[in-house]
């Protein structure tokens, strides 16, 4: 006879990964409240709150703004299947694992897809996109603002310019960057933007906030064919999230409770403060890593994504052994590399609730201990010392500026 299954009792980890991030206790509390029906009049108000907060975080007035009942990858899928039809042409900027996924998904639509690539750890050159689109009728340009596989941040302005020249919609993946990196959907004229709840918003995994400009809505209206995916057809999904509140599918109510609370906390902190917090904590982390003699994958500081820091694994040090020891001895999870960067880099996430001074200092101390055990020579306290320097200088600068 088999043993009865025990009570669910997961370990309490510090998730310094590129998602999911640890959550504020208030978000767990919101998720533990009783569910209500998805057509309950009270829930309609809760949906309204969720959309108000989401528009604030995206900095948009877009009517179509809602959480898709799907992880971040669902946001990629929805953006592409709603825009692309037979005969359309798409350009996808591919500089890592997730932008590659965007190209893969676009390739499964009837549209013709051109990939404009650059190596992992770098940004795509907008000039290459201009060249690729020259003399062609391009429907969309897609890219990732934050490429999580390599820790690269892409500035959007030059791509918006090229999209304007080509008459294309601009579709931006902000799964790893929303609420951590400056973004103004309306001012920057991003046509479709999607994110994930489990990264810098620090809500539970499983939803994808998405927003659609009036111009992209127009493109939806002018489609010749129905969207191939019923579930991800944004026009009909919006009949539920819009003023009619017509049943479309049963949304993950408890996850929406968690998301509402996580976004409320985001706006309580303030977007600017949150962006600055992510920047400062990454600067301290980087100072620590460099003081330990480690090298970053992304060389240009302006191209470093504040939520994910990619650090080269030193020669002779075992990727998996280091990560396992961090997990076993300190309950800290970090990530390895994906695709061509497998076993070449570690990725340290400081996303949302995880981006805290205390976590940076704890991680650097724990990392030093593990690296020493694994045979890497590092000066005692070097990483923590350098990070403390950053924090005290910032503190001093803030006092002086007062
Ligand atoms: C995590 C991530 C995704 C995928 O999100 P899932 O929630 O895992 O489906 C897509 N794009 C980027 C940039 C990401 O960081």
Report on this structure:
- By secondary structure, this protein is of the alpha/beta class.
- The protein folds into two domains: 25-267, Aspartate Aminotransferase, domain 2 (3-Layer(aba) Sandwich), CATH 3.40.640.10; 271-400, Aspartate Aminotransferase, domain 1, CATH 3.90.1150.
- The chain contains 13 helices and 14 strands.
- A seven-stranded mixed sheet has the order 2-10-9-8-5-3-4, sandwiched between helices. Strands 11-14-13 form a three-stranded antiparallel sheet, with helices on one face. Strands 1-12 form a two-stranded parallel sheet.
- The radius of gyration is 22 Å and the shape is globular.
- The N and C termini lie far apart (70 Å).
- Bound molecules: pyridoxal-5'-phosphate.
- Pyridoxal-5'-phosphate binds at residues 18-19, 71-73, 98, 144, 146, 148, 173, 175-176, 196.
Question: Keywords, please?
Answer:
single chain, 402 residues, alpha/beta, Aspartate Aminotransferase, domain 2, Aspartate Aminotransferase, domain 1, 2 domains, 7-stranded mixed beta sheet, 3-stranded antiparallel beta sheet, 13 helices, binds pyridoxal-5'-phosphate
Superfamily (CATH H level) name of the largest domain:
Type I PLP-dependent aspartate aminotransferase-like (Major domain)
CATH architecture of the largest domain: 3-Layer(aba) Sandwich
Q: What number of structural domains do the residues give?
A: 2
Largest sheet: 7 strands, mixed
SSE inventory with pairings:
Elements: E1 14-15, H1 25-31, H2 41-58, E2 64-68, H3 72-83, E3 89-94, H4 97-107, E4 112-117, H5 126-133, E5 140-144, E6 146-147, E7 152-153, H6 157-166, E8 169-173, E9 192-194, E10 208-212, H7 214-221, H8 234-241, H9 253-269, H10 271-291, E11 308-312, H11 319-330, E12 332-333, E13 335-336, E14 345-349, H12 357-373, H13 382-400
Parallel strand pairs: 1-12, 3-4, 3-5, 5-8, 8-9
Antiparallel strand pairs: 2-10, 6-7, 9-10, 11-14, 13-14
Helix pairs in contact: 1-9, 2-9, 3-4, 5-6, 10-12, 10-13, 11-12, 12-13
The structure holds pyridoxal-5'-phosphate.
């Amino acid at each position: 006879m088999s043993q009865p299954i025990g009570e669910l009792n997961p370990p309490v980890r510090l998730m310094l990964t590129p998602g999911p991030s640890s959550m504020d206790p208030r978000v767990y509390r919101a998720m533990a409240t009783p569910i209500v029906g998805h057509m309950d009049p009270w829930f309609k108000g809760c949906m309204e709150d969720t959309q108000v907060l989401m528009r604030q975080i995206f900095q948009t007035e877009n009517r179509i703004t809602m959480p898709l009942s799907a992880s971040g990858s669902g946001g990629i899928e929805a953006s592409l299947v709603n825009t692309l039809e037979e005969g359309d042409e798409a350009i996808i900027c591919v500089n890592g694992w997730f932008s590659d996924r965007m190209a893969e998904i676009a390739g499964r639509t009837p549209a013709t897809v051109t990939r404009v690539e650059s190596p992992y750890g770098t940004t795509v050159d907008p000039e290459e996109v201009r060249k690729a689109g020259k003399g062609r009728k391009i429907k969309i340009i897609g890219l990732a603002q934050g490429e999580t596989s390599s820790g690269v941040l892409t500035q959007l302005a030059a791509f918006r310019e090229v999209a304007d020249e080509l008459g294309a919609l601009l579709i931006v993946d902000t799964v790893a960057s929303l609420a951590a990196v400056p973004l103004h959907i309306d001012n920057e004229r991003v046509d479709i933007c999607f994110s994930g709840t489990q990264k810098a918003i620090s809500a539970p995994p499983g939803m994808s906030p998405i927003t659609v400009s009036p111009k992209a809505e127009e493109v939806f209206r002018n489609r010749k064919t129905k969207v191939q995916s019923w579930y991800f057809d944004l026009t009909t999904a919006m009949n539920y999230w819009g003023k009619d509140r017509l049943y479309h599918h049963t949304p993950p109510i408890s996850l929406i409770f968690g998301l509402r609370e996580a976004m409320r906390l985001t706006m309580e902190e303030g977007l600017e403060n949150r962006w600055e917090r992510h920047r400062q904590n990454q600067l301290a982390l980087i100072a620590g890593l460099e003081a330990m003699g480690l090298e970053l994958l992304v060389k240009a500081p302006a191209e470093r994504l504040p939520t994910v820091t990619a650090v080269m694994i030193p020669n002779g040090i075992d990727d998996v052994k280091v990560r396992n020891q961090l997990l076993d001895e300190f309950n800290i999870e970090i990530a390895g590399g994906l695709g061509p960067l497998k076993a070449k880099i570690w990725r340290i996430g400081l996303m949302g609730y995880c981006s805290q001074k205390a976590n940076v200092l704890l991680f650097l101390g724990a990392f030093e201990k593990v690296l020493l055990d694994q045979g890497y020579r590092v000066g005692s306290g070097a990483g923590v010392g350098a990070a403390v320097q950053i924090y005290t200088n910032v503190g001093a600068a803030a006092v002086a500026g007062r």
